[in-house]
Structures are given as C-alpha cells and as structure tokens.
Write a structure and sequence with these properties.
Oligomer: single chain
Strand content: under 5%
Order of helices and strands: HH
Largest sheet: none
Number of helices: 2
Distance between the termini: 19 Å
Radius of gyration: 15 Å
Helix content: 25-40%
Structural class: mainly alpha
Length: about 80
C-alpha cells in the first residue's frame, strides 16, 4: 500500500490538491483468480468489503469515512480483479 500523492500530487486535479485530497493504492495480490470464476461482480464486492475491513482493523477510524464520493454518491474506489 502506498500514497503516491504525498510526493507527487501532479496526478490530481488542482481543486483536489487545494482540498488536501490524496490517492491511496493497495495491492491484494494473493487473491486467487479462480475466486472470481462464478458470480464475478458479487465476489468482487465481497472481496472489496473484506479488504476495507482488514485495512480498518489497523486504523483509528473507518477508511470509508475518508473516501470521496463521485457525482452519483458512490465511493471513488477502483477495484481490479484477475
């Protein structure tokens, strides 16, 4: 896991920089591809929820409270699967 924007904010829009926003990248590489063979979207949502819960176990407050939402009110998360 790393926060790219702590050292290089150039990937953000000017307004996001001024508002103190950052990006956070977490790689969960030990997830077997076969896990997503059936009900891909459901599994992806379950894994995403578990990853956030695991991260939260190390934090003083839930990470979900800090994630920006898009114009539709959905969290600005990008989750990639095999």
């Amino acid at each position: 896991m790393y926060c790219h924007t702590l050292t290089d904010s150039s990937i953000l829009d000017k307004n996001m920089i001024e508002n103190g926003n950052h990006t956070l990248t977490l790689f969960a590489l030990h997830t077997p591809a076969s896990l997503f063979d059936v009900d891909h979207d459901k599994r992806k949502a379950e894994v995403s929820k578990k990853i956030l819960a695991g991260l939260n176990s190390y934090l003083a407050e839930p990470i979900e409270d800090l994630i920006l939402n898009d114009s539709l009110g959905k969290p600005c998360l990008e989750v990639k699967t095999p």
